[in-house]
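Entry, Tuesday afternoon. Goal for today is a structural model of the target with pyridoxal-5'-phosphate bound, before we commit to ordering more compound. Inputs were pasted exactly as handed over by J.K., no edits. I checked the ligand SMILES twice against the vendor sheet because last time a stereocentre got dropped in transcription.
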Amino acid sequence: MVVPFLDLKAAYDELAAEAEGAMLASLRSGWYILGPDVERFETAFASYCEAEYAIGVANGLDALRLSLMALDIGPGDKVLVPSNTYIATWLAVSQCGAVPVPVEPDEATHNITAEGIRAAMQPGVKAVIPVHLYGQPADMGAIMPVARELGLKVIEDAAQAHGARSGGRRIGAHGDAVCWSFYPGKNLGALGDGGGITTDDPEIADRLRLLRNYGSREKYRNEEPGLNSRLDPVQAAFLSVKLRVLDEWNARRAGIAARYLYAFADTGLILPQVAAGVDPVWHLFVVRHPERDAFIARLAERGVQTLVHYPIAPHAQAAYGPMGLSDADLPLASRLAREVISLPIGPQMTEAQCDEVISAVRELV
Ligand SMILES: *Cc1c(COP(=O)(O)O)cnc(C)c1O
């Protein structure tokens, strides 16, 4: 049996009837940039995230860049980022002219902590970007007071955490700006690129609306040098349909995660840990294995497709060669990059596929 890592075609098929109606209506509306479909999605998504405002943008990387711009982070500034995140978190900082300063995560949760932030402080640090990695929320209840005490702006990278909760409250406005990706493989994925930002702050929301649209509120009047980074209305129409099933689809992921956690409890694999006070959304189910690459190859022989998030830490990428950071500077991120493996998980995964992953993994460890 072949078990795909994630079956996007099956996800599409489940929504096709309703989604195609919504997208066709959008195509036939004659409105192709921003407009009613984007506004409808923004309203629904803000309310889903328990935030006052949502701003649709072109992708998750731009959501981060625009948020940094809206908070006036730029050349001369430093921004704390996790050492073990997807490289987009770092790139957004670099592209604003600021310098990413890596913070090692907590080994159990893979997320940065309030203590880690405090220990990493240095002159010039203006902001921190906690990432809710793998759909496991960072401890915002502990991070926010420490960030405020240190005078830091907080931008959350929630690209993997649609629907998650920290301290009983949805991820969406704990920090100053919360950044979302609607990349197809994300829990709330579009049919192409898409992104968004949620916030409770009316001034940040207003600035973001300008910045995503050439710095313009009124056509041909440009208040500041913005980007062209707008959520596409057809994608917004699709996302509005998908948002309605997001909780149910996240619950299916949680069911698979619960089965894996039970089935692998006695295997010696290092399993994901859910911190107290958070509700994860299981974007990924990431385990650690000391001989990761051989384990992947043997699972592949049995038809079980896996991925690695991420095989090379940002500091070790050629793109960050000039920063001169070595694996010895960030030993945990380096070790995680060698040991993590993401098992198949997704809302359309069948019980038989889940059984197959369980028996393949149990046989191999
Ligand atoms: C996917 C992702 C991004 C970037 O999103 P894009 O829409 O692909 O630009 C940023 N950060 C994290 C943690 C992600 O997983």
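The radius of gyration is 20 Å.
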